[in-house]
Each structure stands twice: as C-alpha cells, then as structure tokens.
# Entry
Amino acid sequence: MQRQSLDHTGILNVAAKYLARRPDAPIAEYAEPWRFPLIDSYWAGKDLASEYASNRVTFVWSADTATDLTPISVVGTFDNLWDSTLLDAVMFAGEPTRYRAATIIVPKGQVHTYKFLRAGQAVLDPINPQRVTLDNGVEWSRFFTEQCLTPLSFEEWELAILVRLTNEILPFNSPDAQDFMNLFYFNSDKQARNSVFSQAYRLEQPIGAVNFIDNLVAREEHYHLIDYKICLKLIDGLLRNRFPGLTPEEVSKDGYQDLYNQMAAGTVDGWDTEQYQSPNYFLQLLRRHTYTGVFSHPKYGGNIAGAGWAYLEQNYVGPHGESCFDWERSIEPPLGASTDYFT
Amino acid sequence: MQIQYDVVVIGSGAGGAPIAHELARKGRSVLVLEKGPLILPQGPFGPSGFRRDEIFSTSAEKILRLDVANRGAAYYSSHVEPDLNDEPHVYRRSDGRDDATIEGYTAQVVGGGTQLYGGVSLRFTPRDLRLAEWNNRPGAALDGDPNGDVPKAARDWPFPYETLEPYYAKAEELVGINGETKNQLKPFTSGDKYQKPLAFNPISAHIVTGMTALGMAYYRTPLAVITGDHAPSGRKGPQPPDGAKTAYVNRYGDPMGFKSNTWVSLLSPIRDLPNFTLLPNCTVTHLSCSGARVNDVHFFGPDGGEHSVSGTIIVVACSAIESVRLLKLSAEIDKPGFATRINQDGNQLLGAYFLTHCFGGASALVSAPERYDKSETLDSDFATDYCATDEFLALEKIWAGAVIYNNTSDRALPLALARNYGSRDLDTIWQGFNENTGLVSDKLDDFLDHNFGRGLSVTFMANQVPVKTNRIELHPSVKDKWGRRVAYIIKDYHSHDIALMNKLSDYCRQILVKGGVTVDIGSGAVFGKDELARCANHILGGARFGTDRADSVLDPDCKAWAFDNLYVTDGCFMPSSGGANPTLTIEANSFRVADIIAARI
# Structure
C-alpha cells in the first residue's frame, strides 16, 4: 500500500505524551493506548471533497531501543493481505528514535483488522487495545476510521433497546421536533443525500446517538462497555418480565418512561443489584453519552450530517425567528460552510 | 545535536518565547526545550492539529488510577494538558487528604497557556506594582484583615509601572492584540499598539447598559486575537474579519492562528533562523551546576533517550508550578550545590508565596424572547477599571484593585453548555449535568430553550493576598511516569480575599442587574469543589523577585540570587498577582529580561 510521508513531529507529539515512560514507573502502562493507530484528517490541498472522505491512519510501533533495526511492517484488510507495509523510523533531531511508523490513507466509515509483522512473525498490536476474534477463532487487532456506522460493540437486540432508551433522553419528542428530524434528511441537498445523508438511513436512529455510543465504548471509553453489557441484559430481562409476550422493541413509550424514572430514582423493580449495583449510575452514563452523541462533531459517529446542531439552530431562535446558532459558519466544508477552516 | 548554546530556554510560553525571540533575532544561539507537543496552525502543508471540535478539545472521560484520595474519579482534560495518570498536580484538600487535579496546568504544548487562553491581555495598573506603599499609608484600613496581615504581606515590585510600560507596548505590538486604550486606567505612554476590535456580540449591549448606569467607564477588552494583517508575525488577518469569532476560543487552540499564542507570534517567525532551535516533546528533568554556574540542562527526548545541553544563560519558564518543581527536583539531586544556592541563605522562599487570583463574578440569563448567537463571539467584549482606582480601594477598604470584564463565549457551544452546568472548576466538568437526571426529553428541551444563547457573565480578576504558607512543594509519594516527584499545591484564601471577593462579585452582579439581565442570576467568588484547587489557570509566584535577597528568590532582573546565569521568567517572579489576567505582564517582563540578558552576552 502506498505510504504517506511521515509527519515525524506529529507522531512524536503523540508518542512522547502517551507512550514514552520509564518501564518501572508507577503507571507503567501506556496512557490512552486507544489512540493508536492514530486516526486523523487527510488534507493534501488538492481535492477537498475526496480528501475529506478519507482519514490518515498511522501505525506506531515502539521498539526496545532506537538502534533495534528489526523490520516491522503492517498487514491488514485495508490492503491485500499478502502485501505488507513497512514502517520507518521516526526521527528526532536527525537521529532515529525507538518509534517506527507508517501512514496510509483509508476511507472514512470503515473497520479493518490488522497485525504487525516483526521480522516476518505476525503479532497483535501491543499498544492498541482493540482486538477482535474472527469466526475462525483467530484474534486480530482492529481499528475503525471516523464516521463509522458499522456496529462494533453491540448486537442487534442491544442496539434496539439502546435506541428506545436514548430516545427517552433526547429532546426530540415534541411533534415539531419529530417533523424536523424527518424533514432534515429529506430536505437535504441531493448530492449530500447521496453521501453522508444516505448513510444516516443505515442507522435505526438517524441522529446517531446509539452509533456514537457504540463507537465510544469500542475506543475511548472501552472500560464502560461492561456497564452497557450488564445493564442491557438486565433491562432486557426486566422488560420481558413486565410485558410478557412483547419483545423489548415492542414495549410502549410509557413502558420506557417508567423504567427511566425508576432508574433515575435509583429503585427499579426487578433489577438485580447483585449484578449491577446502581441503575442510577448507568442512567447518568447513558445521559452523558447520549447528549454528547447528538451534539458532538459527526466524526465521532453521532450528530449525523450535523442534524443535532441543525436542530438547535432551527428550534432555539431569536425573537424574530433569526438563527442563534450559525454552526455552519465555523465548521469545515463540506459539513459546514467555513471558507477558511478546513480539516 | 548541538550541545552548547548562548541561551537555553526551558518552556515556550509567555515566559520563555519573548526571550527566545529577542535573543535569536540578535544573533545569539538559542535553544528552546518544550515538554509539550508542537501543534501547528493550518497551513499549506495540511490541516492544523487544533480543531473546532468540543470532544477533541475537552476529552472523553478518563479515570484517575493513581494512589490519591480521589482515585477512581472521572476527569476531562484538554488534549494539550498532561494525562493526569502520567503527571498530575496534587493538592491538599481542606480535610487534609490529597487529590489529583487538572487545575494548575496552563497547558503543555509549544505556546503553553497562550494556546488555550481566552486571550484577555490586560496591563497591570501602576498601583498593582506599588501595593506595599499603598497599604502602609497613614490611615489605611481594610475589611476582613483583623490581624493586619495584609500591609505586612504586601510587596512593591522592584521597579515602577513606567519601567515596564515600553515592554507592554512591545508585547502588544509583537504578540498581536486588539483593543482600545480609551478609558483604561493605565498610561499608554509608548502609544497605542492595538489592532481594531471586531464588532461586539449584541448580547454585550446589556453590559454597556449596566456599566453606564453604574458610572463605570468601559473599554473593549484587549484580546490576543488579530483582526487584521499582523506584520510582525507575518500572519494574515481573518477574512472576513468576523471569521475570527467562533466561540472555539477559550480552552481551544486556534487552527487558523488568529489567536496570538507565542508560537505564531514569536517563535514561528524565527523558526528558520540558523541560530534558533526548538525541541518539542522534551522533558527537562533537572539542572546541574558547578558553583554559581548552571552548566547542564538534562532532558529526556521524545522516546525517553537521555540528553544534556549547556548554555551560557539558562532561562526557566515552565509556568510557576512546574518551574518551582523543576528547581526543587534539581535541588533534591544536588543538596550541597544546587539546593544551597536556590534556597540562598536558607530563606526557604522557593515555592512559597504561591499566588493565583481572587476571582469570581456574576452570571445570569437574558430574558425571553431575547436570544443571541453566542457562537459568534470571542472571549470578552467589555472591561472596566472602575474597581482599580485608589479612590475605590479606599472606599471599599480593599488592599488592591481588580479589572471587571464580561465573558461572551462561555456556554456558547452545546457540549460546553451541558458539561459546565453546575460545575465549579475543571475537576467537576459534567458532574452537574450527570447528576441532574431529570434533564431529559421535554425537560431537556426546556433546559435548552431556557439557556441556549442566553448566558451572560461578568468576571472580576483581583490580587490575592500573598501568604507564605501558600506554596508548591514536591509531593512526598506521588511520582510521574518518569519516576519524578510531582508538584504538590498547598494553598488557601486569606479572610481579606474572601471579603474582597464578596464585594467585587456584588459589583459584577450590579452590572447585570442594571443591564436588565436577571434571570437565574447568581454571583460570588469562584471556588472549586473543595475551595482550594481552583486557580483560574493563573499560576504565579513561588519564586518571587525583589530587592532584598532575604525576602525573594530572584533579583530584580529575574536572576536567581546565588546563581550567575539562571533566570526564571514565567509568572513565578510576581510578588503580587496583579488585578488582571497575567499573560501580557509575563510577556512584557520577559521582553525586559531579554534586554538585560542581551546586554550581558
């Protein structure tokens, strides 16, 4: 695969902060290892639209010493599996450091598995915690690029419950808000609809709050995946007990609202506190995640096409109906309309 | 790698960059070592490493894993602050237990705090540099100072405002500040170097109304944001000019370079000089000396490789907490030599008289149906020196004055609106929102309707009473990822601070009330969750300068008394914190020290 030239300072910016440490330091593990491989914007200044549709992905390997010349390469589903990409030394003040890196271009919205080859021997990425076991039982390292819409962390039944739970949290329940949400995707520019907007329809919940959560617990907040796994299972069982004959997807809005209120109050009939002590804690987590999902930059998997921002702009206007959140002004094209800021 | 330089500067922010800039332009060989990363603004070679992205800037949740009292706590930091598990600041809580905190880090990046600040760039008043003289005048009386501590604690700076004035002008010109001099209390003897301010956000009309009703002469807040082409740094101004107003300003690096951080203003313009070297991602571990000469600066490279360099002159400017920490760690390694000289004559002043600011203010919402687009803002529109005159100090029986200014970009963006709801400081981000589980669905809609585009706040920034026991030490047990003891912050407020903060926050409240902004109004001093951590990110003192070596760590040139060649030029040097944000004063003083060093070598 064609490699991009290394941004040595850019890689050291991250490696020095998160990787470099004394082996016997109080915290010997890397800080924020989920950042690896590095996923960043791609902008070569030639064709904004096509470059915006891709990410720069930088694989980083930390050798034992700066002089360890063992060849390191990476192989993965972003390329032919028989082609490996060699990592080069990352340089500092004219000398090689212990870090080796390679940067490639991968389209946004993709999930890939990969391994390193160390002197021809396949190894999992020692830094990136994302691992996936394929159907053949073999474990691979995994990364995903921005605006990923493929479920990574949850199964269909878990996603279905999450959609209902997050819908209870979001402020989109009024008839006006629902109209807005429905029309937002229909009224979009045709060309945009064929790209980002059409992606939204792959999601059961176009605004993407659940998709954001799925991405977040695959990467930045992976330690919270267990909260979701346990609590969704408890909620699934609890709803089936309360509403015999209905799947959780079929339970009414009132059913979810009652559940929500009980979780907020901290006492939920049928909740096994031995398995998970505080339903209120899970609710707090879910609220933060949901709110963040709909109002954060779409690269994180939510707020698809800026729908959350557009909702704020449409709904909370000035006394003469004027916009009070011209978000597009400051945000990069093609998502926004900034004429000088690109990323 | 070259190992011998004329000047080695440790820290690339407000304290270090002016020195590097001046001396490199005068042809000296200069090395700047910076612990943090080098993040560039957008340019022909690619996008910036700074983003208009609320999560990029204030992270996803992280969990504290250190052996401190708040182990297990969630924290959220900027991508240019250290990971707290790797290098925390620890502070002593009021109950005596030790918490890790993100407070006290101005930023760890080339440009330091100037990358993250809102850009408020005020001069100190002449009175700010003469507080001992004022507070020991016949008839002086203060509220909240029953033991008469304040007149004894107050210190005059070793030179008057007039000495610093031309350097303020130099900083304003070279850094790139927009504002207006009219109605400022400070003399602008060297002239007006400001660029023209941009149109203020219409919400700030309430501030004008309020200040006018109270007889407060106001001025456009000086901000380190260029509004037009800036010749000294070669930066092109924003096109259209209002494009600089994005609300992604306070606690955001600016991808366009309009916010005048020391990289775009002072270091980038000299980056191609053959005699200038910047090494980011390098952690200076300690200095070593032989006799009165600091000869070696030891540092880790980006992958932990050990290096050392030497300089004829060494300048430490890591932001006060980290500078004090570096000096104390150097002392720990060399007790007979370095330690003796930095604690010269045993005065034990290194780390002592640590200062932040007294600050607080008032906050409220404009009344429906008014609503404004707060995404089209910079950090502040209007300021007043009403509370800084001698007459005001005498009337209110406070020892020193304060600037008051409004904030416009706060709570403008949707995540900021929620995560700062009910939060007291950087350690309690998201907490208020998380706990308010009733804020969902139509109640969340109500919350947004009520708050979005309506928030207006007014802040004061006041001198904090210097107290010897407010100090930075090395923590007895907590170490960073390199095994080095971390900084330990021990501080509290004096009773006069409390009295002063209550008075000034009332004035802030009155500005809002008279300005017709009263919905959900609240006012008061800003305390952190435990009252003791909050720093306003103004990190000062701990190595104060003075004319009396028994009473200071540095001489009036900011040189450590018992060393020939060691200067400390971040906010450490201040014996009083000033009634305004400190960055411009740190920069001005550094330009002053640059001239002193240039005359020596």
